Amino acid sequence: ICASSLCCAVLCLYKGWQVRRVCRHLLDFEAMSRHSKHSNDRMFFTAKERADAGFAGTRKEVMGTDCFLPFGFCALSLKAPKDPVATPHGQIFDRAAILECLLQQKVDLQAEKKKFEEQERKKARKLQAADDEEKLKEMEEFTKAEQGLLSQDHRHKRALEQRDAKVEGDFRPEKKLRDGELMQVDKSKLRANSFWTKEYTPTAAPAEVKQVDTTTKCPMTGKKLKVKDLIPIKFDIADQKMYDQGGGKGMFCCAVSKNPIIHQQALLLKPSGVVVLESVYKDIVSKEMACPVTGKKLKGKEDILKLVTGGSGFR
Asked: Coil, strand or helix: which one is 268?
């Protein structure tokens, strides 16, 4: 074989090796790009993975109007109220539901108050017993001093110390066992010192009852609420059929414009109990300061109450 043909063969082999190397790099690049699209070694979910799993819904889709209570519904029974009332903070309840809630609060608070009073009486009795014991001890010491039992004689002191030692505990030397004699052990003392014996397991002191406020509160706002603070409401029904079926959105309407109240701001005129939209109040009621339905005069802003609006997905 000549040198030129050998050089050509070596060159061809070298070029073929370079081509194979480039192809291998291209294949590796394609594999890496495909792997990056389907990688699952991250510590978080990507937007595409969340969308594929069904968790990529927007807030408008997740929190629809069904997540909120329609306007005019009782906040306790979650139903259309038969006898609606409003609190000074704008919450709407059914009279029967809110009265039952306030009555139950009163019963629970009275029970807590009785527990607190009993606890304080026990504390007072305990302190009185300690004071009586201290006074009795002082009287005994005074009596002994008067009778001359506490003289400065060392023999008397030694006798008193021995007597006190016998009272507090017996410090006499233990008896030694004879050969073949079995030691008698009081197992009750051993059980009393054992943590695993349930009868002798130490227990924590009962929790101290704190003094409670006996005033009833609104179950929604947590503010003070009494029965006399409830304001009656006269709702105008926009859809009687919907009301008979249990109620729904747009069941009640404005007493003047007759527009259904869904998520708009509604106002209650306290003297008459009529409910109107805020826009109607600005256009009509605020000019004459009188109820447009009954004609009762309004003293001022203290006779206007903002009711809780109906829920919507844009809240």
From this structure: strand
Residue 264's φ and ψ, nearest 5 degrees, are -75, 160
Segment 196-219, tens digit of pLDDT: 776 666 666 778 888 888 899 999
The answer to whether the pTM exceeds 0.85 is no
Confidence at 58, pLDDT banded by 50, 70, 90 = low
Which residues 6+ apart lie within 8 Å of 219 measured at CB?
A: 75, 76, 101
Q: Is 216 helix (H, G, I), strand (E, B) or coil?
A: coil
User: For residue 287, how many other CB atoms are within 10 A of its CB?
Assistant: 9
Alpha-carbon gap, residue 75 to 101, rounded angstroms = 12
Rg, C-alpha atoms of the chain: 44
CB 307 within 8 A of CB 313: no
Q: Which two tokens stand for residue 101?
A: 């809630």
What is the distance between the alpha carbons of residues 310 and 315, in angstroms, rounded to a whole number?
Answer: 10
Answer for the pair 88, 231: CB distance below 8 angstroms, yes or no.
yes
Question: Tens of pLDDT along 95-121?
Answer: 999 999 999 999 999 999 999 999 999
pLDDT band for position 13 (cuts 50, 70, 90): low
Count the neighbouring beta carbons within 10 Å of the beta carbon of residue 95.
Answer: 17
CB 218 within 8 A of CB 87: yes
pLDDT in tens, 278-302: 999 998 888 888 888 888 898 888 9
| Contact status, residue 106 vs residue 216, Cβ threshold 8 Å | yes
Amino acid making up residue 190: L
CA distance linking residue 7 with residue 13, whole number of Å: 10
In whole angstroms, give the CA distance from residue 275 to residue 256. 9
Residues 284, 93 contacting (CB under 8 angstroms): no
Distance CA 119, CA 113 (A): 10
